[in-house]
Amino acid sequence: PRPPQFTPRPSQSIPVPQLRLTEEEKRLLAQEGVTLPGDLPLTQAEERLLKKVRRKIRNKQSAQDSRRRKKEYLDGLESRAAACSALNQELRKKVQELEKSNGSLLRQLQALIKETSTKPAQTGTCVLV
Questions:
Q1: Are 15 and 8 spatial neighbours (Cβ–Cβ below 8 Å)?
Q2: What pLDDT does residue 45 have?
Q3: Taking Cα atoms as reference points, which of 44, 51, 65 lies closest to residue 21?
Q4: Per residue in 10-49, pLDDT tens?
Q5: Measured between alpha carbons, how far is 58 from 77 in angstroms, rounded to an integer?
Q6: Could you tell me which SUPFAM superfamilies the record lists for this protein (predicted)?
Q7: Angle between helices 23-32 and 44-118 (to 10 degrees)
Q8: Contact 19, 36 (CB under 8 A)
Q9: What are phi and psi of 18, to 5 degrees?
Q10: Which neighbouring-strand residues pair with 18?
Q11: Cα(53)–Cα(24) distance, integer angstroms
């Protein structure tokens, strides 16, 4: 006995997978001067071209991400630098105030020392029981 053979009916055609391209892929392919067929499979040359275009798109996206991360990093550094600068100014002001206060206290101490050294020494009596 022969195995039954399957013959598709004319109304039942096998669907051919469609090639789906993004707008960016279409734009880059047009830039290269290439048009790809709308259905699959592709030839090896077409596959290579499509891979090249997709690699260009990935590289472009990667470069954009890198620039974005660099900008975020620099913005963060700038804000940290501004905060450190403000803190530095505040601390400089505090140092000036403390130096002024220290000078004032030093003058008072010197005046006290001078005052006590000019007085004659007082003698006291100590009684031991």
A1: no
A2: 85
A3: 51
A4: 555 666 677 788 889 888 888 888 777 777 788 888 889 8
A5: 28
A6: Leucine zipper domain
A7: 110
A8: yes
A9: -95, 145
A10: 39
A11: 9
